[in-house]
Structure formats: structure tokens, C-alpha cells
Amino acid sequence: MTTTTASAQPGERTVGKSSPGTARGPRRRPGRIRRIGLPYLLLLPALLLELLVHLVPMVIGIVMSFKELTQFYIRDWTTAPWTGLDNFTMSVDFDAPVGEALLHSFLVTCAFTVLSVGLCWLIGTAAAICMQDAFRGRGLLRAIFLVPYALPVYAAVITWAFMFQHDNGLVNHVLHDQLGLTDKPSFWLIGDNSFVALLVVSVWKGWPFAFLIVMAGLQNIPKELYEAAALDGAGVWQQIRRITLPSLRPVNQVLVLVLFLWTFNDFNTPFVLFGKAAPEAADLISIHIYQSSFVTWNFGAGSAMSVLLLLFLLLVTGVYLFVTSRATRTPRTPRKHEERRTADV
């Protein structure tokens, strides 16, 4: 076999060829491996804390839901006898007192969540739209609007509990003594009015979060869209309907889901406002599970109710994410394009 070697001309680059036996692939740099593993190393403490704080108690709670864990087995809960699905069956038996009380609490929680989330989103969005344009004192108003969100939950709810007092509360003083809107001072922390009081406190401390998120989303909407719409003769409501709300759709999808999960699982507000025994009109499912577990000392039934609540929230979240993602990915055909297609047919 004859091998011909071409001499390199001036200005040309000589390329050396190695034999097949000595061919080597590209070497991986150690720095690249370090860069890839660094994010996982930084996330490791958070993952360990998540495992210890949430996942391990959740697994223990699921195990407890299959046991007859009453006050007689609290000292050593591992010796409690297994009951299988008896706790779940008792919880969903709506003809029995336990199931009927759980159903009532679930319906009250659903009504409370829908009203609270809707009002929080409405007030927060309206306030954010009003604060969108620059004017004197806007920064101060924004800071004032965020005060309920910055206050500790216990301090805020305790303050509202004093304001809702029957004899010397500020609410009755304003509504009855000053404005004369009621015939006599109302009981806000007991009876049917307790639902209204709980809703007011929840909306008061929840709408600033919606205001903050929507206000951040409004910063990404170009002002040229509003200027062009104004030149075309669009009014304020038409601009909000055609520009603001469609542009805020991704933000609102996340905001509504977060508000729903926070409100449905809210325990601090009713517990601080009413104590261990909430009125029947404001018996949220979080308080009901607390009473079933720590008041009647039936941790097995309370754990079963918690598992059912978890499954319900997972189902609602999955359906919500599926519907919203499908609506986002589905392209909309313009009307003019549809008219052309119809004319061609």
C-alpha cells in the first residue's frame, strides 16, 4: 500500500491524522460536572427539610388513618389495632352524625373559600389597576395597602376579635351607635354572623397578596397597547376587558390556585378568632379536623379526614391545572380567517 504525503503550501493549515487505534473522544471537563452538580447540591438542604417537615409527617398521618388511634393508645400509638378503611367509611357515611358533621363543615368551607377568593381577587385587581398610573402619593398608598399582608396573622386576627366584641367592639359602635344601621348590637363571634366576621377577616388579610401579585403582572404589559387602544377610541372599561385581563391570565391562573389552597386550608384565622370550638356557621373543615383529633382524642378519624381532604385538594388542583393549561395551549382562530374559510367552501 502506497502512502502519498502532500506537502503543506504556505498559508495552509496542516491537519494531522491519527491512527484508529489512537483515536480519543472529547474529554469531559471536571468544571462542567461541578457546574451540573452544584444546583442539586444547593437544593439538598431544602429537600431534606421538606422531607422532614412535610413528607414524613404526611406518611405517618396516612398510617394513623388506618388505625383505631384513640386516647387509650396515645402513649404508644404503634400498638393501636388496625381498622382498615373503617375510619374512612365512618367519615363519608353522611347519614351518621360524624359524616353529617363533616359534610356540613365541607360545604361551609367551600362557600367560604369561593367568596373569600373571589373578593380577594376582585379587590386586589381593582386596587392594582387604580395604582397602575403614576400620581403623587402612589408609593405611600401602596405601602398602606400592604400593611394587612405584612402584619402577623395572630396580631391581626386578635385585633379583629376585639373589634367584633358585642359590648365594647368598634364594629358595633360604628354600625349601631354612630350610623344606626342595626336595631341593636350584633353578636359577631357566635351565631350566623360568625360566618360574615370570618369572611371579613379573611378578605382583609388576603386581598393585599392579590394586589401585590397583580401589580407585578401589570408591569409587564406595554403601555403602547393602551395608547393605541385610546387612539382607536377604546374607553377605560374596554381597555381593561380587552388588554388588561387577557394579559393577566397567566398571573391570575397561579394567583387563584394559591389563594384557593391557602383559604381552604386556613386554620389560624378561625382558631384565633373563635377558639377551639367554632360556631356552626363558621365551622371550617380545618377546625373540624382539629376538634376530631385533639378535642375528642380520635386521631384515627382525624387522620382519615385529613387524608380525604388531601385527596380532594389534589383532585381539584389537577383538574384546574389541566383545564387552564389546555385553554392556554388551544389556539384561537381569528374571525376573519374563519370567514375566509367559509367563503372558500
Break the fold down into its secondary structure elements and pairings:
Elements: H1 30-64, H2 86-92, H3 97-130, H4 138-145, H5 147-150, H6 153-163, H7 170-178, H8 193-218, H9 223-231, H10 236-247, H11 249-264, H12 268-274, H13 285-295, H14 299-329, H15 335-344
Helix pairs in contact: 2-14, 3-8, 3-11, 6-12, 8-11, 13-14
Architecture overview:
This protein has 15 helices and no strands. By secondary structure, it is mainly α. The protein has a domain of 219 residues: MetI-like (MetI-like fold, Orthogonal Bundle), CATH 1.10.3720.10. The chain is globular, with a radius of gyration of 31 Å.
Based on the model shown, name its key terms.
single chain; 345 residues; mainly alpha; 15 helices
CATH class of the domain at 107-325: Mainly Alpha
CATH architecture of the domain at 107-325: Orthogonal Bundle
The CATH superfamily of the domain at 107-325 bears the name MetI-like
SSE run: HHHHHHHHHHHHHHH
Quote the CATH topology of the domain at 107-325: MetI-like fold
Number of strands: 0
Percentage of residues in DSSP E strands: under 5%
- Measure the end-to-end span: 71 Å
Give helix % range: 55-70%
The average pLDDT value, as a whole number, equals 84
Radius of gyration, in Å, reads: 31 Å
- Write down the overall geometry: globular
Q: How is the main sheet built?
A: none
Alpha-beta classification:
mainly alpha
List the total number of helices. 15
| Low-confidence blocks of residues | 1-19, 333-345
Brief overview, please?
The chain has 345 residues and is mainly alpha-helical.
